[in-house]
């Protein structure tokens, strides 16, 4: 007979959506945005990130060069029965994010009631943040899953006090970190709450918190073990190297507006504005000794430090749009409690409907050209062209130095292994670790694939042929691929034939211009 952990049993019993199902407005909201997201899945092609993390899942490990392993485990689980396709990947995203919302709803029910709970749900359900998580495979998908679950379990731990809540909360907090390094803010938020709460401060010295900390360590151990085995290369890349980028502290007046604008795209203006106002109010009340109940302090501990920290960093460094995602999970409690007028909520929904209509139009018809390789369009055509070239020259290996993007996408579609930029001593992310020894390629011929955008970048330092000749005896342009949509050229790819790898004909400092 299978015996479930008491905390798991309790959660399963609590997954009742009666209050939502009785509210026709919320029910319609859930239905409409679910249909929008499922439609997005149907039209969303393969993104380079989807392909890169699928490469992870086909080479399972304790961790990886630039991210912890949970996204790989998630993909491996879903593709084991859904198969390998873009639709399967995005279905995995949608299902995982749906469970994130369920856990978040259960958490919100513990803190908010009545109109405040409804406002929080209306802020979250239509948010583009949820749509992005539902249709694009990144480490943020499992991060938000475990972050939401950990919030629920952590709140149970501090309010119920049973040891098993502390253990399960610690495990899920650790799994947040095993999903993405920003997950470290989850156990940090728990410690901060206990430290700031007079009622719960004594818990820091209790055996239950020791159980929590031990559970966190167990859950993060795969990442730590992998980093020890690989000279801490991942932690150094995500911490020391990022810190090096901050060391100059060069003020750029466009960075902060860019950061705020990108966050507005995630949660829309009303949510973001009220979150900042509420965060400032919480800090002010705590510092001045005014009344602040433990529920609000709990929600703030997991949101305000991250929001304040990344906002400060955004003055001197470009903060990526997804780094702040966990802030909004408990931050919605602060925003919902501060909003007293449903007019703002209605505007939030109207903005969201407009944004999602524009998003679907872009996915289906792509009226706006995507001037980046971070796109869902054109990859199948590239694969077909590469297959054609490879059939003509089956003995040649194929590589690209376009970060991880082209290599990852071609590895997703092609049967043969596609190499990355470390073939010509360029940065290659996980590919560089997996293919650290390239001696088996010496003397072989190759096909080098590059996009127009990355080709222009390389041309600033000299001709493409001269760059390739630092590692090959000969290199010349063999073919190209022009992709048009609605009569407009959207993407170009170039294919260079390279001969005799490992026998260069040009010095390393070649700078002849083309």
What do these coordinates show?
By secondary structure, this protein is an alpha+beta fold. Helices cover 62% and strands 7% of the residues. It contains 23 helices and 4 strands. It has a 4-stranded mixed sheet with strand order 1-2-4-3. The chain is globular, with a radius of gyration of 25 Å.
Q: How confident overall, as mean pLDDT?
A: 91
- Tell me the number of strands: 4
Low-confidence stretches: 11-16, 509-514
Main sheet attributes: strand count, strand direction, barrel closure: 4 strands, mixed
- The helix content, as a percent range, equals 55-70%
Q: How many angstroms separate the termini?
A: 72 Å
CA radius of gyration is 25 Å
In N-to-C order, the SSE pattern is HHHHHHHHHHHHHHHHHHHEHHEHHEE
The best one-word shape is: globular
Percent of residues in β-strands? 5-15%
Derived structural class = alpha+beta
Number of helices: 23
Looking across the biggest beta sheet, what order are the strands in?
Answer: 1-2-4-3
Strand and helix map with partners:
Layout (H helix, E strand, L loop, with lengths): L5 H9 L3 H5 L1 H20 L4 H11 L11 H13 L3 H26 L2 H11 L3 H8 L4 H21 L2 H15 L7 H12 L10 H23 L3 H14 L8 H34 L5 H8 L2 H10 L13 H12 L3 H24 L13 H14 L4 E3 L5 H9 L15 H6 L11 E6 H8 L4 H5 L3 E14 L2 E14 L13
Helix pairs in contact: 3-6, 3-18, 4-5, 4-20, 6-8, 6-9, 7-17, 8-14, 9-10, 10-12, 11-15, 14-17, 14-18, 19-20
Question: Key features?
Answer:
single chain; 514 residues; alpha+beta; four-stranded mixed β-sheet; 62% helix; 7% strand; disordered C terminus
């Amino acid at each position: 007979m299978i015996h479930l952990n008491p905390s798991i049993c309790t959660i399963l019993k609590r997954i009742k959506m009666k209050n939502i199902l009785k509210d026709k407005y919320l029910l319609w909201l859930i239905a409409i945005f679910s249909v929008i997201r499922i439609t997005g899945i149907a039209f969303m092609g393969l993104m380079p990130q989807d392909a890169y993390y699928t490469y992870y899942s086909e080479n399972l490990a304790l961790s990886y060069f630039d991210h912890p392993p949970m996204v790989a485990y998630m993909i491996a689980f879903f593709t084991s029965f859904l198969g390998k396709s873009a639709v399967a990947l995005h279905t995995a995203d949608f299902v995982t994010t749906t469970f994130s919302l369920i856990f978040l709803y259960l958490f919100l029910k513990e803190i908010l009631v009545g109109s405040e709970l409804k406002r929080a749900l209306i802020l979250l359900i239509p948010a583009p943040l949820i749509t992005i998580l539902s249709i694009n495979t990144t480490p943020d998908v499992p991060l938000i899953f475990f972050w939401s679950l950990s919030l629920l379990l952590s709140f149970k731990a501090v309010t119920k006090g049973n040891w098993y809540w502390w253990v399960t909360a610690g495990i899920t907090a650790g799994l947040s970190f095993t999903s993405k390094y920003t997950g470290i803010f989850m156990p940090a938020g728990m410690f901060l709450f206990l430290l700031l709460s007079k009622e719960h401060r004594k818990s820091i010295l209790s055996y239950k918190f020791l159980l929590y900390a031990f559970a966190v360590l167990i859950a993060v151990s795969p990442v730590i073990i992998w980093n020890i085995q690989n000279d801490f290369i991942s932690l150094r890349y995500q911490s020391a190297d990022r810190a090096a980028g901050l060391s100059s502290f060069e003020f750029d007046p466009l960075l902060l507006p860019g950061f705020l604008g990108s966050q507005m795209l995630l949660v829309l203006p009303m949510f973001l504005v009220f979150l900042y106002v509420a965060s400032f109010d919480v800090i002010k009340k705590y510092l001045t000794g005014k009344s602040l109940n433990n529920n609000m302090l709990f929600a703030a501990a997991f949101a305000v430090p991250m929001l304040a920290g990344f906002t400060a960093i955004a003055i001197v460094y470009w903060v990526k749009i997804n780094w702040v995602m966990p802030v909004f999970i408990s931050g919605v409690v602060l925003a919902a409690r501060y909003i007293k007028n449903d007019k703002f909520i209605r505007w939030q929904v109207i903005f969201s409907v407009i944004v999602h209509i524009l998003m679907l139009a872009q996915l289906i018809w792509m009226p706006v050209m995507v001037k980046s390789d971070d796109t869902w369009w054109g990859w199948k055509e590239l694969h077909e062209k590469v297959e054609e070239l490879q059939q003509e020259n089956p003995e040649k290996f194929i590589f690209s130095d376009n970060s991880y993007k082209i290599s990852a996408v071609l590895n997703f579609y092609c049967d043969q292994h596609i190499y990355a930029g470390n073939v010509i001593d360029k940065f290659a992310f996980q590919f560089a670790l997996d293919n650290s020894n390239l001696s088996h390629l010496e003397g072989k011929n190759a096909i080098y694939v590059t996009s127009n955008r990355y080709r222009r970048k390389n041309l600033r330092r000299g001709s493409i042929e001269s760059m390739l000749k630092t590692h090959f005896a000969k290199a010349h342009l063999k073919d190209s691929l022009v992709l048009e949509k609605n009569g407009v050229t959207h993407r170009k790819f170039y294919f260079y034939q390279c001969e005799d790898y490992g026998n260069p004909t040009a010095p390393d400092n070649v700078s002849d211009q083309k």
